[in-house]
Design goal:
53% of the residues lie in helices and 8% in strands. By secondary structure, it is of the alpha+beta class. A four-stranded antiparallel β-sheet has the order 1-2-3-4, with helices on both faces.
Length: 396
C-alpha cells in the first residue's frame, strides 16, 4: 500500500472545483473497478447465480479491495479533508431545506471513513501478506461509502461561493408567462423535457412552450401537475437556461441503506426460459407442474412471478417517493397491478397443484421428429444425382 501524500506546504492550495473533481475521479475509477470485479465474479457462478468457485471469487474481491485503496490514495487521500471542509462551508451558506440535515450526516460519515482510511494508509501492512488483504477488506465499506456519497461533498464544494439564481422576470412578467404556460398545458402544448432539484429543495422543470408553431424554453418552479407552480424564466434554448438557472443538486435515494458499490450477493434464481424449456422437455404432468410451482415459489429463492410482484411494489414505492401528483397516481396504478399479480400467482399455484395431482404422461403418438436425416448404410448404393442441364459445347 502506498502512503498518501498531502499537498506540499509551499504549493498552491487546490480550489473547490479541483477538490470536487478529485471526488468525481475516484468515483469513476471505482465504477471501472466494480464492473471488472462483477465480470470476474460472474465467471465464478453457475447459470443460476450460485458461487461454485469460492477461491476465485475471494481472489476477485481481494483484487477489488486493493485496487480501490490505490485509487483512493491517488485521487482522494490528499484532498479528502479539504473537500469536506469546503462542503461544510457551502452547506452553512445554503437556505434552509429538508435535505440539509441528511447531507450534514453524510459529510460526518464521510469524515469518519476518511479517518479510518487515513490510519490504514499511514500504517500499511506488509505487501502481499494476509494482513494486507484483511486490511484492504476492512477498508472496502469506507471506500464504497466515498464512491456512493462523495458526490454530495463534491456538489457542495462546486457550489461554494456560487451565485444564487435571481429571476429575470418582474412580478407582472412572471404572472403573464405563468398564465401562458398554464394555457399551453391545457392545450397539451407544454412539453416537459428535464427536471431537477435546486439547493433550496424546490423542483425546477424545463419545458417547451408551443404557440403558433413556435416554441420557447421556459423554466418552471414547483410540481407542474399541482396548483401553484410558476414560470421563473424564458430562454432561447436549453443551454442558455442551464447557465442562469439554479444548479441541480444530487438526487435522493429510494432506500437510505442501499449501496451501488456494496451490493449483497445475488440470490440464485431460475429464469423463465429455463422453466419453459423444462415444460417442453418434460413427459409427465408432474414435470409441467414443477415448472409452474417454481415460477410462483416464495421466499429466498423466489420465482419469476413473485419477483415481478416485488418489482411492481418497489416501483410503486419509487413513484410515490417522487412526491409529485403524477408520481402518486402512478403509484396507485402499480399497487393495483401488484394486487392483480398476487391474484394470478395464487391462481397459477392452484393450477400447478391440480396439474401435479393429474397422474398422466404424454401419449406415445406424440412422437419426436428427428432433427437430422439418417445417413445411408455403408453397403447401399447412393442415389443417382439429378441429370445435368445440357449445354452447347464451345469451340475455339
Amino acid at each position: 500500500m502506498t502512503p498518501a501524500s498531502g499537498p506540499t506546504p509551499d504549493g498552491p492550495l487546490p480550489t473547490a472545483p479541483e477538490l470536487a473533481n478529485a471526488a468525481r475521479d475516484f468515483r469513476l475509477r471505482l465504477a471501472v473497478i466494480d464492473r471488472e470485479t462483477e465480470a470476474a465474479l460472474d465467471m465464478t457462478r453457475d447459470r443460476y447465480g450460485r458461487t461454485v468457485h469460492a477461491g476465485a471469487a475471494a481472489a476477485a474481491r481481494a483484487h477489488r479491495d486493493k485496487a480501490a485503496v490505490e485509487a483512493y490514495a491517488a485521487h482522494l487521500a490528499p484532498h479528502a479533508e479539504a473537500l469536506l471542509d469546503a462542503a461544510r462551508l457551502a452547506l452553512d451558506e445554503l437556505p434552509p431545506a429538508r435535505h440539509l440535515a441528511g447531507w450534514r450526516a453524510v459529510l460526518d460519515g464521510l469524515a469518519v471513513s476518511a479517518a479510518e482510511i487515513r490510519r490504514a494508509l499511514d500504517r500499511p501492512a506488509a505487501p502481499g501478506s494476509p494482513a494486507e488483504r484483511a486490511q484492504h477488506a476492512a477498508l472496502w465499506p469506507h471506500l464504497a461509502a466515498w464512491a456512493d456519497h462523495g458526490s454530495i461533498a463534491s456538489n457542495l464544494a462546486d457550489q461554494q461561493g456560487g451565485q444564487h439564481h435571481k429571476t429575470p422576470l418582474t412580478d407582472e412578467e412572471q404572472q403573464m408567462w405563468t398564465k401562458k404556460a398554464q394555457a399551453a398545458q391545457r392545450r397539451g402544448e407544454l412539453e416537459l423535457t428535464e427536471s431537477w432539484y435546486a439547493a433550496d429543495g424546490q423542483p425546477i422543470t424545463l419545458a417547451y412552450l408551443v404557440e403558433d408553431d413556435d416554441s420557447t424554453v421556459v423554466a418552471l418552479r414547483g410540481d407542474p401537475d399541482a396548483p401553484g407552480w410558476q414560470v421563473i424564466g424564458h430562454y432561447a434554448h436549453e443551454y442558455e437556461a442551464g447557465k442562469v438557472l439554479p444548479a441541480p443538486v444530487p438526487p435522493g435515494v429510494l432506500r437510505a441503506d442501499v449501496s451501488r458499490f456494496n451490493r449483497p450477493a445475488p440470490v440464485p434464481e431460475v429464469s423463465l426460459q429455463d422453466l419453459i424449456r423444462d415444460v417442453v422437455e418434460g413427459h409427465s404432468a408432474g414435470d409441467a407442474s414443477n415448472a409452474l410451482l417454481s415460477a410462483v415459489q416464495r421466499g429466498y429463492d423466489a420465482g419469476p412471478m413473485v419477483r415481478l410482484q416485488e418489482l411492481l411494489e418497489t416501483s410503486g414505492q419509487f413513484a410515490s417517493a417522487l412526491e409529485t401528483v403524477q408520481g402518486r397516481q402512478i403509484a396507485a396504478r402499480l399497487a393495483a397491478l401488484s394486487r392483480q399479480i398476487e391474484f394470478l400467482t395464487r391462481e397459477v399455484e392452484e393450477a400447478a397443484e391440480d396439474l401435479g395431482a393429474t397422474v398422466a404422461v404424454l401419449p406415445p403418438h406424440r412422437t419426436p421428429v428427428l432433427r437430422t436425416r439418417p445417413r445411408p448404410a455403408v453397403d447401399t448404393t447412393p442415389p443417382k444425382p439429378p441429370p445435368r442441364a445440357s449445354t452447347t459445347a464451345r469451340h475455339r
